[in-house]
Amino acid sequence: MAAVIPDQSHDHPHGPSGLMRWITTTNHKDIGTMYLIFSFIMFLAGGVMALAIRAELFQPGLQVVAPEFFNQLTSLHGLVMVFGAIMPAFVGFANWQIPLMIGASDMAFARMNNWSFWLLPPAAILLIGSFFVPGGATGAGWTLYPPLSIQMGMGMDMAIFAIHIMGVSSIMGAINIVVTILNMRAPGMTMMKLPLFCWTWLITAYLLIAVMPVLAGAVTMLLTDRHFGTSFFNAAGGGDPVLYQHVFWFFGHPEVYILILPAFGIISQIIPTFARKPLFGYASMVYATASIAVLSFIVWAHHMFTTGMPVTGQLFFMYATMLIAVPTGVKVFNWVATMWRGSMSFESPMLWATGFIFVFTMGGFTGLICAIAPIDIQIHDTYYVVAHFHYVMVAGSLFALFGGAYYWLPKWTGRMPDERIGKLHFWCSMVSFNITFFPLHFLGLAGMPRRVPDYALQFADFNAIATVGAFGFGLSQLIFLWVIVKAARGEGQPAAARAWENADGLEWTVPSPAPHHTFEEAPVVR
Amino acid sequence: MSEIARENRRLLGRLIVGSLVMFGFGFLLVPFYEKICEVTGINRIVQPDRVANTQVDAARLITVEFDANSHDGAWDFRPLQGALRVHPGELATVVYEVANTRREPMTGQAVPSYGPPQAAQYFRKMECFCFAQQTLEAGERRTMPVAFVVDPDLPADVKTITLSYTFFEVEGRRARAPGVESGHGS
Fold first, then answer.
1. CB within 8 A of B12, min separation 6: which ones?
2. How far apart are CA A102 and CA A199, in angstroms?
3. Structure pTM?
4. How far is CA A472 from each of CA A345, A411, A480, rounded to the nearest angstrom?
């Protein structure tokens, strides 16, 4: 991409210094950094909960935690990872990269950007703090199904308020991203020249604006059922708990694409760089992303095949769900076709991207199996489903986030990531991830139910293997921390403006590390 | 204000309206769901059914199991028979007994559910205590009938239907006598 780049000389934050600089900052790079640090802390918090769960499941019987605390751990692990780790991490990437990639000086609404970040820590405190109130945190699962969620103690109310706050935060973040991408592009940056990461985030932001308010409505109805005598879901007053499942999954299914579409964007940036070829089928990637987003609104009830839905309904949601495999298949095909006969090299970002395609595709295939109604009735609420969504959430979203972090780390810190440690991180994570989650497929097929702290004896061996893998995976993430801290402290090889040999895009035209203010005069893209 | 900032604000306004509309849409799903259930008859479980076809299929025998649960422990609630064997199309009756175990009058209602769930649409209740709320004096015991017909269209693979009632206290309908402690024991 040819571009006229004005001189980048202005490189100092002004205004307050110290802590107040971070609290009052409106700079997209500062806010992006805070989002990334916040999400990594939440990732470790959710990870510790996961390890407590796996420790309990290491052998049959009850050893480590009490059953009701086990339920709180599984519920909060889900909420923290979805709303505290993965979503804020992608918003952090968006804050850092979107203005750099489209040649804008900052996000469209810089002060709202500050606000949408600073709403997150109070929400996190509410969620984590709910462990310490009488009755403990919510144990109703991350989906908060009634009737259980109507009966829980005040930890449930804290979770509801946390979801309200995080919902407002992500709606504001999404609005900011839409306006920035639509209105702030540099001259000549047409929509069909937009980097794919921006495209996938634009579509994700629309999804967020459409469904986060629906979740807010659903948990508001839970709240009024709990405290204000309404009976939306309370069967005692003529309500229907199944209605909650419909409203929740109307949010919940688009939500899983909110968690994966920006990952597709990151992978679509990394692979062309290290295959040294332009992305294969750019336009089809855009259309595939858009069709996944549209389809995500008509498949929600595939989470509810066991609620006694009429056969016609099951068939509709089954076929609609399987249809999503088509645009997803287009994407995987395009990534592989981009690699085809490219001169590939496997630096850490490319390792993660290639690993992503391998494991994410496995998660996609098990998703297709879960979509088949008669099979789903057999494996519903078993560890097969747990294996499926960890293959797409961990191996999908998280691996793409790691890939993106290694890819743009030179731009953020000015130092190349340490290849040796980065590769160690990748291989440890990849191997231990599969040791953890692959056996769960077998456990699920054999009928082990999820969200239960104890299990029958015949499940013991695979559970022991999975627990060993989980501790390996958890410890591997400290290697990542090592890479990041090393680069952030200015150790390692200094990065050039174009840190990777064939990297394409406006973000590689500014120096590494990116100065505090970039593109104050818009570049011209030809 | 520059042209681009004005344009940004216009788009901001539209997107905020969009998210408010979607917040409302979440609540709109409630009447929408009720309407769909009403039109398709999926959730018609507490209204009397009519039976058009009274043909008895003597070749099939269906086991109907009866179950009773009390939601808040205030009720002593049970069927007088554990199970019945009926032909599809045949009118059958089962009697449930409910007692108010509290020291004050209570109003409650039973809500049925079925296993397997798809049996719900083939289970026709002509008469059922679940159609209305029941008010019981303190310590009162009452027997109540359910008259039902299993539709002969019931899929052939369904051999057993479980009819399970849960007795709920109707929220806010507890008759309050002055000086009597509410005795909410749970």
1. A108, A109, A175, A179
2. 11
3. 0.89
4. 27, 30, 13
**Is the CB of residue B161 less than 8 Å from the CB of residue B124?**
no
Encoded tokens for B25: 């849409």
* Nearest residue to A274 via CA among A332, A335, A347: A347
Residue whose token pair is 């505290």 = A84
- Distance from the Cα of A368 to chain B's closest Cα (Å) equals 24
Chain B interface with A: residues with Cβ < 8 Å: 4, 7-8, 11-12, 15-16, 18-20, 22-27, 29-30, 33, 37, 40, 42-43, 71, 109, 111, 114, 116-118, 120-121, 166, 168-172
Question: Tokens standing for B115?
Answer: 């296993």
Digit-coded pLDDT (tens) for A425-478: 999 999 999 999 999 999 999 999 999 999 999 999 999 999 999 999 999 999
CATH for B62-169 is 2.60.370.10
pLDDT tens for each residue of A380-393: 999 999 999 999 99
Give me the residue spans of the domains in chain B. 3-48, 62-169
Please determine, for the modelled complex, whether the ipTM score is greater than 0.85.
Answer: yes
B67 torsion bin: left (phi>0), alpha (psi -120 to 50), beta (else): beta
Q: Which residues of A participate in catalysis according to the annotation?
A: 77, 106, 142, 169-170, 253, 255, 257, 268, 302-303, 328, 331, 450
d(CA A109, CA A172): 10
Nearest by CB to residue A243, choosing from B33, B71, B168, is: B33
Greatest Cα pair distance, chain A, in angstroms, is 69
B143 DSSP β-pair partners: B97
